[in-house]
Every structure is written in C-alpha cells, then in structure tokens.
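Fill in residues.
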C-alpha cells in the first residue's frame, strides 16, 4: 500500500510551487534587489582589495580555524578543486535524488543572493551573505560556513537569531529563502546543530542525506567539510601559476594527500 503524501505545509515551496512563482519569490521587491546588488558589489570590491582578504584570513588563523594561510595561487586552485570535486558533484547527486532540476535551482539561488554564487569560498562575503547562504541551501556539511562566520565577532549569534526568525516566519528574506530551501525541517535541524556545535565543536557534523549514506564522499567531506580541512588541503597545492595550471589539467580526481 502506498504511503500518503506529506501535508502541504510539510513540503517545501521549492517542491510544490510553479517556476514563475518561485522566481518571483526569489527576486523579492525593489529594496531586496538593491541590497543584493550592493552585496554583489562588495564581493567584486573584495577581489580587488588584498588588504581585506589578508585581514579576514588572519582573523580566521587567530581564531584557530586555519593553521596556515594559503598563498593566493593556492586559494585560487584550491577553490576550483573544492568546486569540481566536492560542491558541484555532491549537490548534483542530491538534486537528482530530490527530483529537482539542478540548473533551474542555481538560477533561483542566483536571483535570491547573487553574492553567494560569486564567492564560493566565502572569504569576500558579508556576515549576512554567509548566513543567508547557510539558510538558503541544505548544506552537505555546514561546519565550513560556521567556521567562516568566525570572521565576524557576532557571526554565530546572528546566525542563531536569523534562524529563529526563519522558524517564526519573521525573517525579512523568509519568502525568498523559502522558495529555494529543499527540506522543510532544515532550519530547525540547523539551529539545533549550531547550538550544540558552539558548545562542543568536536560533535559529529550535520551531514546532508546523500553525503551521510555514501562512501563516495567520505574522504572528500573530511577535507572540504570544514574550513580547517579545506585550508590544509589548499596548503598542499602548487604555489606558482604554471604549476597550478598543470594541476588543473593533469589532476582529474580528488586525492587527499597530506591534507588531513
């Protein structure tokens, strides 16, 4: 006997609303669009401002989330590896399982927060940009972003507060984020995990279902699931542009090497 479908309120908007409705919700009003463009502009400025990047990396090192700061070349090549070996394939698998069109989902994500798509490693993002990204997408492992919020004195406090607003339906971006997030109970689970992780960062991570049940991503998640692991991997990569280009061409599969 087939199980009854879940009630509408238990099904996220992403799975029950029409594409045009999702697009409208993702875009938001004029004030929301102005804010998005301003945050995107700050990302572009950050790429040109080496001082800001140096200050943020130093803050993360001083907070204990980074052992050693990678070079600029290592940051670039490491970011590409993280995208091609971890973020993109794990996300594509997840969306196939959810019967969600991966391409259209990226369009919705861009419309909701273009800055998060322009800065995959997050070093140039604002505090609220990182928080919005965490709430927008069911993360394979949120620890990377929780550590990234160490760039801001009130980062984790604000994350807890904004998750509470999402659950209460009072967050100013609730409609847009609700059009994208893939699982109805994600915000509740994330808030519970954040509170527990702040008390004990050694607890097991909150893994997305397709990562938790798959051996394929075990070693990759241990490397890229946290900022600490990712930066250790970045530090093993080439430091010259010529060797970086060679790495991109010749390395076609993830190899953890001495990154863990």
């Amino acid at each position: 006997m087939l199980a009854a479908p879940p009630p509408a309120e238990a099904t996220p908007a992403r799975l029950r609303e029409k594409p045009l409705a999702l697009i409208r919700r993702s875009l938001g009003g004029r004030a929301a669009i102005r804010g998005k463009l301003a945050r995107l502009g700050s990302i572009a400025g950050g790429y040109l401002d080496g001082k800001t990047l140096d200050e943020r990396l130093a803050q993360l090192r001083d907070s204990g989330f980074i052992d050693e700061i990678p070079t600029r070349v290592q940051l670039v090549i490491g970011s590409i590896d993280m995208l091609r070996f971890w973020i993109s394939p794990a996300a594509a698998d997840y969306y196939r399982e959810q019967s969600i069109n991966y391409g259209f989902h990226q369009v919705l994500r861009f419309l909701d927060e273009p800055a998060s798509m322009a800065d995959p490693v997050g070093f140039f993002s604002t505090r609220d940009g990182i928080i919005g990204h965490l709430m927008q997408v069911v993360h394979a492992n949120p620890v990377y972003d929780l550590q990234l919020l160490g760039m801001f004195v009130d980062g984790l406090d604000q994350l807890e507060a904004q998750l509470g607003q999402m659950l209460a339906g009072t967050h100013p971006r609730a409609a847009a984020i609700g059009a994208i997030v893939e699982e109805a109970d994600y915000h509740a689970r994330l808030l519970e995990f954040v509170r527990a992780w702040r008390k004990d960062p050694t607890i097991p991570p909150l893994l997305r279902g397709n990562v938790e049940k798959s051996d394929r991503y075990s070693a990759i998640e241990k490397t890229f699931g946290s900022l600490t692991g990712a930066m250790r991997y970045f530090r093993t990569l080439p430091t010259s542009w010529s060797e970086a280009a060679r790495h991109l061409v010749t390395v076609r599969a993830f190899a953890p090497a001495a990154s863990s």
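The chain has one domain: 13-250.
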